[in-house]
Amino acid sequence: MQKARVVGQGIATVKHPSMQGWKLLLVQPLTPNEEADGEPLLAVDCLGAGTSDYVIISNDGAAARELVGSKNSPVRWTVLGVCD
Length: 84
What we know:
By secondary structure, the protein is mainly beta. It has one helix spanning 61-68; strands at residues 2-10, 23-29, 41-45, 54-58, 77-82. The chain is built from 1 helix and 5 strands, in the order E-E-E-E-H-E.
């Protein structure tokens, strides 16, 4: 798990079938000092986070595939929570 900031939304005209109906967010992972930690990532969101929100993300691919209901899904990152 890692803290990240939502920097935008992902929009795709063609998605893997398992990703249909899921909101995609572009999130910037952060260090403990809230500095950028690497490149932004694409994460699946079911919580309704918006741009500039701080979120908790996970790279547990197995849990992400279970969330979307497909063992063959390319989903890797998921939003686990929105920080107050």
